Amino acid sequence: MRRWLYHDDMYRFGTPQSSWWEASAGAAETAFEPLTTSEQCDVAIIGGGYTGLSAAYHLCRNHDIDVRVLEAGHIGWGASGRNGGFCCVGGDALGSEALVTQYGEAAARDYTKSQVAGVQLVRDLIIEEQIDAERHGENELAVACSARQFEKLREHAEFQFRVLGLDTQVIDADTFRESCFDSPVQHGAALLKPTFGLHPLKYVRGLARAAANRGANIHTGSEVVSWNRAGRHHVLQTSAGGELRAEKIVSAANGFMPEHLRTEIAGRTLPMFSAIVVTRPLTEDELARHAWQTTSPTFTARNLLDYFRVLPDGRLLFGGRGSASGDDRSAAQNFERLVKRMHAVFPEWRDIDVEYRWHGLVCMTRRLTPGIGRLDDDPNVFFGFGYHGNGVSAATWTGQQLARWIATAPTTSTRPPDWLPQVVYGLPGRFPLASLRLSYIRAAIASLRVADSVAQRR
Questions:
Q1: 417: cis peptide before it, omega within 30°?
Q2: Residue 121 to residue 128: CA distance in whole angstroms
Q3: pLDDT for 156-203, tens place per residue?
Q4: What single DSSP character describes residue 181?
């Protein structure tokens, strides 16, 4: 089995991203060391991002369980330290109407409530653990890029309010221009609460510090290179030469899941390329060119959405999905396309220098919802992944649910707990011909670009 889906350039665990987050976060408050010795614990967690650290934090704080976290890079090396910093509702890509159609209204409402709770959980952790995460804004804006799309947004927002109980509001184009910003692509928007922006690297570092303070042992530079069984224990070997034995395992690596180590989890994720650029700080006069006056995290309601926000120091962060093999050359081409799109959305900022460029992986699943559960053939292996670009809140919430499940569930039962939403339970199905997943992505993105181009002209 191929070790990684993308080019090896995407998996340089010892190399930080050249991101604004890395440049602005300062030195880490807490230093962690690789696992180089032979150790044992109750629960071993593979992945030191939001999912794994939240699970570790809640296992230690609420249940006093002996936990060790193995992270291949440094804290925040993966998606948890390089995303756009949108803490918002929803870890799925199905959409509200499809959720209700597929799972029923009650299950869809249950899931939606859990995602709102995820946003509140992040807010509470930031406050309780005094994490300097630079919270910014209080809602999320979905911008329509055509008059026809605005009508669809209106219907969608009304459905979310009426059926799912979400706090939504529709803003017409003129009101939006006066209260948020002006752009040639905007034709009104829908507003959704709760949502806020944050500094994702500072948040994940703060979560790691909080977990360590509660008793979790965290090891960076400790990629899991082999995973075997020895009686009732799982045995994990690390790239630093260490060995960890544990009765229970949590697989929490999301888009960087080591599929080659367990056949049960292979082929169940579709990691999609996502890129971000950040400009130099804009002056007040420059911000006024687009009448900018919002702190809300924002995205365009397209198939291949753009997501953006002005950061607290006045920089514009602009991100979008893309297709690439993961090598440096194709990444550079993706950044060129992204900057071109940024200039189409904000033409008055064409002369603003872009100072930072980086990329990462958004983890999709075949059923387009997160997967939370335990393996049928080994109930001591738990997993949580697949947040579809909404991992700040969804992953933090998933870690909390995994901790509760591990601490309270019978050892031999694979049945889901009553409190876990039906929408997220169990392993998502495998992608057919999983070795061709990059071809799926390229074909899908090409067709979505055409669809967005046609929709823009209507």
A1: no
A2: 10
A3: 999 999 999 999 999 999 999 999 999 999 999 999 999 999 999 999
A4: -
